[in-house]
Structures are given as C-alpha cells and as structure tokens.
Automatic annotation (TrEMBL):
GO terms for cellular component: cytoplasm. This is Uracil phosphoribosyltransferase. It comes from Cohnella candidum. Pathway: Pyrimidine metabolism; UMP biosynthesis via salvage pathway; UMP from uracil: step 1/1. CDD domains: PRTases_typeI (cd06223). PANTHER family: ADENINE PHOSPHORIBOSYLTRANSFERASE, URACIL PHOSPHORIBOSYLTRANSFERASE, CHLOROPLASTIC. Uracil binds at I194, G199, D200, A201. The keyword S-adenosyl-L-methionine does not apply.
Amino acid sequence: MGRLVICDHPLIQHKVTIIRDKETNTKQFRELVDEVAMLMAYELTRDMPLEEITVHTPVSEAVGRRIAGRTMGLVPILRAGLGMVDGVLQILPSAKVGHIGMYRDHETLQPVEYYISLPTDVEERELIIIDPMLATGGSANAAIDMLKKRGCRPTKLMCLIAAPEGVKAVQERHPDVDIYLAALDEKLNEQGYIVPGLGDAGDRLYGTN
Ligand code: PRP
Ligand code: URA
C-alpha cells in the first residue's frame, strides 16, 4: 500500500483555509495554490537520497551532504494541475515537466483524455503527478495508467484536497504510488464535488465557470 501523507505544516493549513474560502478572488487563489505547492514540495522531497561531499571552507575541510542526483519529472493534469507546477519548480528547478490533458465528464464523472506530452527521457525520471483535487480518483488513476503504459515510473501523487473515495481508489489500483495531500476531506456530494472542498479548482484558478 502506498503511503498517505497529510502535509500538516501550519503554513500549509493556514493557506489552504484561505484557498477554500469562496470570497478568495482568482488572483489570491492562484498565488496561494502556488505557495502551498512550494511548501508541499519540501515534504515530497524529504526522502531524496544524499551523498557525502567534502568542501573547503575558508577555515578547514567540511564533510557535507548533497542530493545524490535523483532525476525528477512533474506531470500536472490539465487544467488545474498547472496551477501548482511553478511552486514545485521553485524547489525542484531541474525537474522536467510533462502534461496530461484530462477532464471529468460532468454527467458520468468519468475522465476524458485529450492530450499527453512527456519529456524525451521520461522513463528515466521519477514522476510526481500533480492535481489539486482527488475526488473519485478517476482522473488520477487514468493519468497513472497512461504513464505506466508508456513505461514510466510515477511514484508520487500530489494534491491539495482529497475525498476518502479518491484516496481509496488510487491506493487500490496503484499501491506503488504515495499520495501527498494538504487536507483529507469528509466526502463527495452527489455531483462528485469534494465536501467541504474548495469548489471547482480549474474554474477558481482561471476565473471560468
Ligand atoms: C478536476 C480536478 C481533477 C479532477 C478530479 O478537473 O482538477 O483533475 O477534477 O476529479 P476525479 O478525482 O473525480 O477524477 P476537471 O475535470 O474539473 O478539469 P479541469 O482541470 O480542466 O477544470
Ligand atoms: N474537481 C474539482 O475541481 N473539485 C471537486 O470538488 C471535485 C473535482
């Protein structure tokens, strides 16, 4: 079973509460999603391997540690996943970015795929899938399926808010993927929205409805 990590740092919790508020406007929403993504990236990179390195300070030799060259890739699910990419890139500036285009059919709640573009060396990279919302889990599962079918290694799924139904669906289908959240909410409503959630993440990020 993949790990479920709730990033409960006070700054993340504070910002997510403002993100949820329906009075938060598009500009603030976008800025806060970006900031939370950056803060969550600290938690996601906690298990990066280190190696020893000796440097020379002005005083003496110092044995320090540096990241042992793990190559990462980010794969946001369009549209809403795009809102978190720049924040993560602030922590992982060398990561390459692929894109998966997918939307949920409003009637059936089934994901509809419309686009995929991946970096050329994607099979060599450890991939983080990025999407603010994990509701039924259909979109995340379909994105992970698409990546695995192409011989890729998606290891982490990063979302702002999830419903228990979505977490369960991903853990059952992809037990090799760890899930990182800022909040685990109560349930889905009849329309497949997360309760209490934040509404439609894409619409709030881009001012559509
Ligand atoms: C939202 C969200 C996820 C999906 C989650 O995207 O960004 O991709 O719904 O729902 P699920 O877990 O039930 O699949 P949406 O379909 O609204 O597309 P958008 O990002 O283009 O607005
Ligand atoms: N997609 C969203 O944007 N919000 C939800 O609550 C569920 C799916």
